[in-house]
Amino acid sequence: MDTLESFPGLPESPETGETYLENALQKARHYHELTGMPCLADDSGLEIDALDGAPGLHSSRYGGAETPHEEKIRLVLEALAQVPESERTARFRCVAVAVGLGPEPLVSEGTCPGRIALTPAGCGGFGYDPIFWVPSEGATMAELPEGRKHQISHRGLAMRALARRLQGSGAPKGKRL
Question: How confident is the model at residue 124 (pLDDT cuts 50, 70, 90)?
Answer without folding.
Answer: confident
